[in-house]
């Protein structure tokens, strides 16, 4: 790098760059190669593009189109054929993985103070005490391990007396591998106090690894919510900020599947920008509408 003075771009240069980006987006909107590209992606990756809202899907694809300086969807399709490794970058762009421990802390406070204690109370008199939780769209596992922390806080010395299984599913295999390792940077743990970090993580240089007790009760696997066979018999299902990217009909189908996957009295938790649709809105009973918590009564 040179040692000369750094020159700031003037307004004219910034406007030219902005106009260029706008023109690129407008050209892509009219590009007839979009449908052909979608068919290619589905055929070569198994990622069914037709399930997603087109505006969202187009925005995610455009991230890679611009990043590779492709002038059109046809040019980007040619790039995919010439460089199959680009499919990995594309799938990473299509699967939005933004997460952290105790994301939306107010939701986790309700889970800790009300939801888990309710489950524990209902199982206290049983010979076999079990708790099954599904983190659907688990990204790199932060949500699943957050739930493990809450269970340990509440159960304390009784933690090992329960059959606890937390299943995290996603379609992003890279994120799932990270979840299995359970190693996170400081930013992922920004919602945790020092005591929680010390109790449930092992410091490894600049990173933190979750304790083995939590790895023993968690399972991470690839699972397509729409096309794969439904997983059943859960006490809590958490699926936050996943369904919002799907078309309305797919959202309704998923919500009914989640209803069937829950046991009686099970809790269903969705993202704050999401709502129950169709039959699901009458099947689930609202438990805390502010935090989007619902319960299955029958």
From TrEMBL:
Q: Name one GO biological process term.
A: methylation
The CheR-type methyltransferase domain is annotated at: 34-297
Gene3D superfamilies reported for this sequence: Chemotaxis receptor methyltransferase CheR, N-terminal domain (1.10.155.10), Vaccinia Virus protein VP39 (3.40.50.150)
Q: Spell out the reaction equation it catalyses.
A: L-glutamyl-[protein] + S-adenosyl-L-methionine = [protein]-L-glutamate 5-O-methyl ester + S-adenosyl-L-homocysteine
- Is rRNA processing one of the keywords UniProt gives this record? no
Return any one Pfam family short name: CheR_N
UniProt keyword annotation of Lipid biosynthesis present: no
Q: What is this protein called?
A: protein-glutamate O-methyltransferase
Q: Which gene encodes it?
A: cheR
């Amino acid at each position: 790098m040179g040692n000369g003075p750094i020159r700031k771009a003037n307004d004219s240069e910034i406007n030219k760059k902005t106009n260029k980006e706008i023109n690129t987006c407008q050209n892509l909107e009219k590009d007839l190669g979009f449908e052909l590209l979608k068919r290619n992606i589905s055929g070569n990756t198994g990622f069914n593009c037709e399930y997603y809202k087109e505006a969202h899907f187009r925005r995610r694809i455009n991230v890679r189109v611009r990043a590779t300086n492709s002038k059109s969807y046809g040019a980007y399709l040619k790039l995919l054929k010439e460089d199959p490794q680009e499919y990995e970058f594309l799938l990473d762009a299509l699967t939005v993985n933004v997460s952290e421990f105790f994301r939306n802390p107010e939701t986790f406070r309700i889970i800790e103070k009300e939801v888990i204690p309710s489950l524990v109370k209902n199982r206290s008199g049983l010979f076999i005490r079990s708790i099954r939780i599904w983190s659907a769209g688990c990204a790199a596992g932060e949500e699943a391990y957050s739930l493990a922390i809450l269970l340990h806080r509440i159960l304390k010395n009784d933690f090992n007396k329960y059959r606890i299984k937390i299943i995290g599913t996603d379609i992003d295999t890279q994120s799932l591998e990270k979840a299995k390792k359970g190693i996170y940077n400081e930013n992922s743990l920004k919602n945790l106090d020092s005591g929680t970090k010390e109790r449930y993580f092992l410091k490894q240089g600049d990173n933190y690894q979750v304790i083995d007790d939590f790895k023993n009760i968690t399972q991470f696997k690839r699972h397509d919510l729409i096309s794969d066979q439904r997983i059943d018999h859960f006490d809590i299902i958490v699926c936050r900020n996943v369904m919002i990217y799907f078309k309305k009909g797919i959202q309704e189908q998923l919500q009914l599947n989640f209803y069937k996957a829950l046991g009686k009295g099970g809790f269903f938790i969705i993202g704050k920008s999401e709502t129950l649709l169709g039959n699901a809105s009458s099947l689930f009973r609202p438990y805390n509408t502010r935090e989007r918590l619902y319960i299955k009564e029958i």
